[in-house]
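Explain this record to help learners:
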Amino acid sequence: MKLQHNLGGLEGLDPINTEVQVFVEPWEQRIFGIHTAMMALSNQLGSSPPQYAIEEVPTTFESFWTWGHLRMGAENMHPFEYFRLRYYEKWLGGISGFFVSEGYITQEELDTRTAEFLASSELAAAPLPQGGEPAIDEQVVKYLREGDSPMRALSAPPKFALGDQVKIKEVNSGEHSRLPGNLKGKIATVIKVYDNAFAYFFPTTDGIGEPMPVYSLAFQAETLWEATTTEPNMIYYNDIFEAYIEAA
């Protein structure tokens, strides 16, 4: 398990960042926009509710890209790099690596262009390209308004019910996980069984992907952290995919 999968169980991560601005630097807004456009043009949207006519959008981006891919790019980093880099720097690294892996640009081309920008303040300050394809703009705006839902109909009844005592499995996180590492092996109580199943963007090595039930679980905080860092009767809640749960 990588350190970045276990942030809830780590101590001594001070100083805490109290930055309140969403975007600190102008380039961070651009990275957010690039990621949003990639999600809005992702090739799986034709089969993901609400089912966009993505094949009719005149884009040269033909890949599968979601929040999950962005998170996986960050989680794949060496832990030292993960903790060293700022939030949107992780995004930049994940997106850049994806474009290289998908063949949109080579690593050599990316390195050359990066060196050119770093060497020329005039080039770095140049205005962004203008114009574009209106149909792409319309698709991005539509996606921002409607999104794509992971909610699906249940194909089988949930394995657990309200009030059940369950245990979080000791699964191998692999490249990407939606399970906080400090919950592994811990006991919790089911306090809500959601009415629908929920899919994840793509199959992960630790068991999620296909639509499955999701539960809201209540943990005694003192079983997760030292008693001196919690308050009496403090409860911690987390929504967990069924693949990560077994009977206590």
Q: What stands out?
A: The CA atoms of residues 100 and 110 lie 8 Å apart.
